[in-house]
Amino acid sequence: QVHVVESGGGLVQPGGSLRLSCAVSGGIRSISDMGWYRQTPGKQRELVATIPSSGSANYADSVKGRFTISRDNAKRTLYLQMNSLKPEDTAVYYCNVVAVSLFGGRVNPWGQGTQVTVSS
Q: Which residues of the chain have pLDDT under 70?
């Protein structure tokens, strides 16, 4: 079974920074795409940023220039550095991965989410 666990959320003032982490564990043969998504009450989950196993990252227009996604393949960990945070960045942030399990099947697990609150 594949597990995805996010951490690093919290309360921060506008203009501040946070770094989210996402640890992937379990029976995985390989990981391709990894990404961060966010959701606020009453709204659909939206893409924040994704990063392939090789190649360029992709960002939502609302976070370009402020957020940076990165990954450590050896540690099976995904990161999201968030700078210049705004109140509208307040949401539950979720990690998602696309991976191949040890049995050869494609898996696409989500984490439980971590709350980010930007407020003075």
A: none
